[in-house]
Amino acid sequence: MSTKRRFQYLLLTLASQIKIHAIMKHILLLIAHPKLQESKANKALIDAAHKVQNVTVKDIYAEPFSVENYYDDFKRADTIIFQFPFYWGSAPSQMKKWIDEIFMAFCENPGVTGKSLLIATTTGSEYEAYRAGGRDQFTIDELLRPYQFTALYSGMDYLTPFVVYSTAAPNAEEYIYQGAEEYRKLLERLVE
Ligand SMILES: Cc1cc2nc3c(=O)[nH]c(=O)nc-3n(C[C@H](O)[C@H](O)[C@H](O)COP(=O)(O)O)c2cc1C
């Protein structure tokens, strides 16, 4: 190939990559874990998310708690993820505070209509426990209704929750490894 042809080829490849990058969607992933340094499951999910382009991860227990700190990432995001370990059938408390104070402000400006909300959570209990008649009686879908309501009420699309069960099982590492792989694939689909 001549130098001129090689240069043209390089330009075309670059242009298509820039175009692909520009039309890809964005995700803002908010992780709410009060002891992230001790986490196995959520840490593995975050590591998986870091492998996907256009995903911004923010730790709401560590980041400055202000509207300004999240504004640009929130505005740009097509999908917002609330990721947390399941605590007492719900999220750790900072998640609720974030919704009540920061999400509330974003409903006014820049607005949330048209964005999607994904709940990604990890549970100590196994899938079978989260069934009617099971140890935890209710399904995760039922327990996560308040988030579904938040999405509905604010005009967001509510996506099917992503759950890694059995993080307290003797073979938890297998569930976590498999969950992290599935999470990466899901996020890749969401930014396409
Ligand atoms: C305060 C607290 C409450 C918890 N409540 C639940 C619960 O309601 N259901 C459940 O399946 N696991 C519960 N767990 C277990 C956590 O969900 C589990 O340890 C976590 O998902 C593991 O994720 P990590 O490795 O990122 O910390 C609870 C743990 C703590 C510390």
What is the gyration radius calculated from CA atoms? 19 Å
Main beta-sheet annotation: 6 strands, parallel
| Count of extended strands | 6
- What's the name of the CATH homologous superfamily? Flavodoxin domain
Structural class: alpha/beta
User: What number of domains?
Assistant: 1
Ligands (ions, cofactors included): flavin mononucleotide
The ordered H/E elements are: HEHEHEHEHHEEH
From the N-terminal CA to the C-terminal CA, the straight-line distance is: 33 Å
Helical fraction equals 40-55%
Write the layout of secondary structure elements.
Layout: H1 3-23, E1 27-31, H2 41-50, E2 55-59, H3 67-76, E3 79-85, H4 93-108, E4 116-122, H5 140-143, H6 145-154, E5 157-158, E6 162-164, H7 172-191
Parallel strand pairs: 1-2, 1-3, 3-4, 4-5, 4-6
Helix pairs in contact: 2-7, 3-4
The protein binds flavin mononucleotide.
What does this protein look like?
- This protein has 192 residues and is an alpha/beta fold.
- It has a single domain (25-191), classed as 3-Layer(aba) Sandwich (Rossmann fold), CATH 3.40.50.360.
- Helix content is 47%, strand content 15%.
- The protein is built from 7 helices and 6 strands.
- Strands 1, 2, 3, 4, 5 and 6 form a 6-stranded parallel sheet that branches.
- It is globular.
- The site of flavin mononucleotide has 15 residues, from helix 2.
